[in-house]
Amino acid sequence: MTRNILILLPLFSVVFPNSKIVLNNGYYVESKRLDTVEVNYESEQIFISTKAGEISIFKLKADNLFLRKNFVPRNSDTDNNYSFLKIDHKDKFSIIYEDGAPLMSFTLVERPGFLNKLLAVLLGSALLTSFIQAYLKINKLWKRRKIEEVANSISIVASLLGFAVLFPFLLNSLFVTQDYPAAIKSLIGLVLATMFSLISIGYFIDQNKGKGILSLLLSAISAEKGESTDLISAMLRPHGAKKIIDILIKLAAIDDDVAQEEIDLINEFATKWNIDIPDLKTGKPDGVTNLVELKSLFKSYLDEKPDVEIAKGLTDLINRMAEADEEVTREEAMAISEFSGMISHYVNKEKGGSVDMFEVNIVPQGDHQIRAINELLPGLESVKDRGGEVFKVGKFFSEDYAEAVCTKYISLGLYSSYVRVKSNDGV
Fold first, then answer.
1. Radius of gyration of the chain (CA)
2. Are 416 and 403 in contact (CB under 8 A)?
3. Rounded to two decimals, what is the model's pTM?
4. I need a labelling partner for 351 at 20 to 30 A (CA). Which of 58, 81, 245, 256 fits?
5. How confident is the model at residue 16 (pLDDT cuts 50, 70, 90)?
């Protein structure tokens, strides 16, 4: 077969004049308009891409004549092991078989646009960019190659996987597609993978001198096993998990009695989220927890903008916490009611809605009560509301909570009441 090719090539040189034609790049349509291909002409190669993404590479054999090896099935009856591409004109080419039989001809229908030309320039500079990128990565690490923390920060498994990915691409580029720029790109990647691997196993660290590469490799893989689930654990842990645990601890102590069931529930979630907690004991808590302190902690958690679904799930969690000891005290009930309202407000605010709130007002009965309010709540300014002077203490999400606040001020001799209001802003 090779002999036939050698005989044919001089014949083609006679049939087709020895004047080189440069084939224009662009989109070509087959004479019967059955197929459209994209052509990229280089000095010694022509790349033809189909709509399906298949690429055929024809290599120069003579002026205006290019050759491609056909992949013929073993049991095929055809003897056409090669296809020839003949440039007929700068805007036209033909595909013919080895025996000279015509196969098809193509004519230019569209030249590459500005974007295509720009992409060609960018792709042409990609190889140089890859060299620069590789140098910058290695240069940054090279100065720190002897630092143990740097070595531990690089995944040896990821580096080894780089070899598994890049090596097949290198072989494909060299022996199948013969795309040498792509081969060089894969080779650069392999060099980087080699460098990262050596650094990650601690090869350059002074205390590891004298140890074999295999020994260092096995040690690095073993050490990485214990860290392999760290990211997954962090992803499964809800945002602000530590603060949620703190809320549960304070909620357990709100009734001045910590039950074993409450401790078990706290430990369950702390273990699930890999959070260390103080040693909790049943009975009277060490510290006193009041509703104001607990509400402030809860508000700080919501201010961190947790995921809406996690915030909604927190409602069920605090209910489980309050019911863990099968006894819901008045303080726990008020806390649950207020926190549920805060969560509802947060969820609705994120969705652009609003919720009902309860605004506590103190209505002074004379100048002496105004002075008393100023001493009790310094900085709180009075406003004119419904024809009178009113001190607006604050807005609450729970009616029971608002009533408890009113009761507190009434016990001090101050007339207090609450009204239902709509709120679509913060507390």
1. 39
2. no
3. 0.43
4. 245
5. very low
